[in-house]
Every structure is written in structure tokens, then in C-alpha cells.
């Protein structure tokens, strides 16, 4: 059902056979925590940041819901998506806290602004798990991918593409980074610079508010005006949505598909993979969302029951948030996805089928002709 006019969905998870943990007082927070157990269940709030990044509605939410149901069948899940609005997410969080959630899983629209939500939850004894982005305010744990490594993977892939094209060192590259309010974007940017600095000349560089594809188009149009389309040998676009904007600007400037410079991306969106098979986008960073969501569900249960965190095969590490707090964190490894390993990544993982990738106009591409 929709709660309080928000885009919130509350799902009472069906009961199935499972074993659980003993009841333990929940960890974290300034307030006095309540007692929760898997057998009796507890109320989880999940807040995701936007609708224009395809992964959140298509994968993160349903995967997390499924994993939580398996690990805590008596639990209840409330969900909301802020559609990129900081104020809306704060309102959604307050509504969930008022409704009596026992733990909050938060992917913040704005990490710094989220500190108020984290502090409010803490004052009520509600643990907060930062998901995918490290919110400020002293969250109890953090699950994401190694964001610095994501930027390195993008930079390494771009250098490899320039070598393949024989254009290394011949022109200038453009960097279209992510949102300045997203701490992940700063990590991606730092990782990319670590690889690219001293290797290629960066002709233009932008930070893109709200990860907006439309803003990326405008920025790329400015780069083309400043540098000239023929002088741009590659573009590091921080995610697939912005890669679409970059490519649109290049095509509007008269650059044919065969002459497009290599463009990076991230998130392995279906549209991004289709651009890869069509020869428009060089690569994307594949982050296996199901393992991330399953791990987040496990740590949600751990935090709510006061148990030690169980990261499975992954390693617990300490990361410092923007306020200097040390946060117990689990970071997963990203993968560079190109035309050469689509089958071994998103297809083999069940992320997309070949039929989905090769729908419509993409059926005539070389990849689809061989795969179908």
C-alpha cells in the first residue's frame, strides 16, 4: 500500500520456514534500542534515491525484498524512492520513523543532507545501514562496491580503448563526472584521475548535478565547442545515463557511429549494453546488484538483532565518512563489461537475457546475430 501520499510501498513479507537468531538488543544509536528477533520479525525501511537510474527500481528494490523475505520471513518492509529530491527523501524517512520502523536502509540522494535523517534515526534507537552511498551522520554500517576501484576500472578501460584505436596521446579526453553531492562520485573521479593523470591530456572536465543525462549532453556540447569533435579521442562518462547524453551530443555534432570515440559508463543498464552491442558505447562497469542486495539484507538482520556483522566471503573494513566517523563497511569488486564479456557477466548472472539485449533494432548487430 502507499503510505501517507509518498511513493512508499509497504510489503508484509510472507511466512516461510526459516531458522533465526536469538533476540538481542539492537545496536547503534543514541536512543535505547529495542529487542528484535528473526522469529518475531521487525519493520525495515528501505529508501532509494532516484528513478532515472534504472537499477534501483528494476533490481535493487526487488532483490533486497526477496533476500529479506528469505532471511527474515516474519519481517515487514516499507519502501520509497525519492525521485532525486532531497526534501522528499527526508519526508519519506520521517514518515517511516513515525510509522515505527526498527531499522533503516538508506541510499541517500545527498550524503551530507542525509546526516539529519541518520541523527534522527539514531536518537530513536533505529540503526541505519548505508546502501550504495555512504551517508553522513554516523551510520551503523555500509554496503557498496569499491567506488575508488570503479573509477580505476573506467580509466583503465578508456586507456585500453585508446590503445586499441591507435589514438593514445593523439588528442584530448573529456571527463563527465557524477553528482557533486554524491560521495561515490568523488571516489569514482579520484580513481579515474589516478589512472589517467599523466597518461592522457584532459581537455575538459565537468561535475554533473544529479547525474543528469540532459546536463551531460549540455556539458559535452560545451566540450565539443571548446575542443572540436575531431580532437576528442575519448570520454570518461561516470555512468550509463550520462554516457547516453555524451553520445547524443557527439552524434548531434555530426560524429558517425563508426567515428565515435570510446565512451565509458557504469551500472550495466540495458540501454547501455545495447549501445555497446551497437558500437556506440565502449564499456560499462558491471556491479552485480543481487549479491549487493543480498548482503545488505543479511547485514540488516545482523544490525536489527544486535548480532555481529556477517559479510560472508567478503571482508569487513573501516571507511571514514565525510564527518570523520569510522564506519564498518563491506565493499564488493566491480567488473569492466565490454562487447567481449557480455555473456560471461550480465547474461550468465541472469541480469538480462540475450533476447532483451537484442530486442528491436539491436537484433541486426553482430553480437546479436551470433548470440541469437
TrEMBL record:
Residues 45-306 form the Periplasmic binding protein domain. InterPro entries: Bact_Solute-Bind_Prot2 (IPR050555), Peripla_BP_I (IPR028082), SBP_2_dom (IPR025997). It is found in: Cell envelope. Keywords: Signal. Signal peptide: none annotated. It comes from the Bacteria. PANTHER family: D-XYLOSE-BINDING PERIPLASMIC PROTEIN. This is Sugar ABC transporter substrate-binding protein. It comes from Nocardiopsis coralli.
Amino acid at each position: 500500500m502507499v503510505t501517507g501520499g509518498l511513493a512508499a510501498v509497504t510489503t508484509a513479507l510472507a511466512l516461510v520456514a526459516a531458522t533465526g537468531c536469538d533476540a538481542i538488543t539492537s545496536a547503534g544509536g543514541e536512543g535505547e534500542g529495542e529487542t528484535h528477533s528473526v522469529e518475531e520479525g521487525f519493520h525495515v525501511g528501505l529508501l532509494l534515491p532516484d528513478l532515472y537510474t534504472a537499477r534501483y527500481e528494476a533490481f535493487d528494490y526487488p532483490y533486497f525484498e526477496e533476500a529479506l523475505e528469505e532471511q527474515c520471513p516474519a519481517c515487514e518492509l516499507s519502501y520509497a524512492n525519492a525521485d532525486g529530491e532531497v526534501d522528499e527523501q527526508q519526508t519519506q524517512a520521517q514518515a517511516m520513523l513515525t510509522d515505527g520502523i526498527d531499522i533503516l536502509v538508506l541510499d541517500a540522494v545527498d550524503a551530507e543532507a542525509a546526516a539529519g535523517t541518520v541523527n534522527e534515526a539514531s536518537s530513536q534507537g533505529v540503526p541505519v545501514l548505508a546502501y550504495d552511498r555512504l551517508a553522513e551522520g554516523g551510520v551503523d554500517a555500509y554496503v557498496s562496491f569499491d567506488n575508488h576501484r570503479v573509477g580505476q576500472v573506467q580509466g583503465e578501460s578508456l586507456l585500453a580503448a585508446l590503445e586499441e584505436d591507435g589514438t593514445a596521446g593523439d588528442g584530448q579526453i573529456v571527463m563527465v563526472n557524477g553528482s557533486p553531492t554524491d560521495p561515490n562520485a568523488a571516489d569514482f573521479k579520484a580513481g579515474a584521475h589516478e589512472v589517467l593523470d599523466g597518461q592522457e591530456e584532459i581537455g575538459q572536465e565537468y561535475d554533473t548535478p544529479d547525474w543528469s543525462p540532459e546536463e551531460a549532453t549540455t556539458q559535452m556540447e560545451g566540450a565539443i565547442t571548446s575542443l572540436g569533435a575531431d580532437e576528442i579521442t575519448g570520454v570518461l562518462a561516470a555512468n550509463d545515463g550520462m554516457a547516453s547524453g555524451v553520445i547524443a551530443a557527439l552524434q548531434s555534432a555530426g560524429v558517425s557511429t563508426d567515428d565515435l570515440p570510446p565512451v565509458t559508463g557504469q551500472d550495466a543498464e540495458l540501454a547501455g549494453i545495447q549501445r555497446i552491442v551497437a558500437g556506440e558505447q565502449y564499456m560499462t562497469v558491471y556491479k552485480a546488484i543481487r549479491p549487493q542486495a543480498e548482503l545488505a539484507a543479511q547485514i540488516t538482520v545482523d544490525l536489527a538483532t544486535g548480532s555481529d556483522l556477517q559479510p560472508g566471503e567478503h571482508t569487513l573494513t573501516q571507511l571514514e565518512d565525510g564527518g570523520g566517523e569510522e564506519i564498518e563497511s563491506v565493499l564488493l569488486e566491480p567488473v569492466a563489461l565490454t562487447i567481449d564479456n557480455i555473456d560471461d557477466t550480465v547474461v550468465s548472472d541472469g541480469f538480462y537475457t540475450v533476447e532483451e539485449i537484442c530486442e528491436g533494432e539491436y537484433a541486426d548487430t553482430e553480437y546479436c546475430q551470433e548470440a541469437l
